[in-house]
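ok so i was messing around last nite and threw this chain in just to see what happens. nothing serious, just curious
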Amino acid sequence: MWLRTSCEFSFNIIEATPFILMLRPRSNAKQWVAREEYRISPNIPVYEFTDLYENLCQRLVAPPGHFSIKTTADVRTSEENKNGYNAPFIEIQELPDSVIKYLMPSRYCESDRFNQMAMDITYGETPGYNQVAKIESWLKQNISYIPGSSNYPVSATEVNQKQSGVCRDLAHLGISLCRSISIPARMVVGYLHHLEPMDMHAWFEAYVGGKWYSFDAVRTTTAMDGYVSVGYGRDAADVAVYTQFGFPVYPLTQKVSVEEIDPVT
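result:
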């Protein structure tokens, strides 16, 4: 599937304001970025770097006045078949070094508090993929997805208490449950075709059977197609699409779109 993603923000800047942006998807085994356009107005210096999680990030200082960002990308995505059943649990001593950090509790994923709950949810399942699939199913059945119900990140503990949240919140709880039974899990932020209402989206991945598999407690279908990833991290603290410092500013406008296109040649 070929998708065109677009994201646009505009701000009224009161004083010179540093930003870190995370808006560029990168090519990987699940997607190929064939074309990109990145516009910043006014035209100011931008410096790009790769963060600890290999995300493409941009640094800049926005001057006072109207400031806007617009990105578009044409991306070929591959459907991730839900055929990972019975993919085995990987023993801790066999995990790649780069995966270990996704086992640890983090700011919004207090996995050290969820072991018994995760054991109860996954009771009788084969260790590995089947456990994560059961966690995903449990989230869909027990935690209500309510778009727009949370304007700031909340922790997995809070989500479990409220029994509801936005996509980011459901991902936090899924990640925490996985880590609590020693399955590495990470948050992904990006785009999802046909998401309603349209916005940036968050889901999670779990490392079983020697690879990362995607899980989404919001998606009602079994196919994992129509996704374009932009950032990876331990939780929402690592995958903000923009972070600003200094005097608080808020978007005047925010527009996100995803459409299917003809193959790019």
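not much to say yet. Residues 193 and 226 are 5 Å apart (CA to CA).
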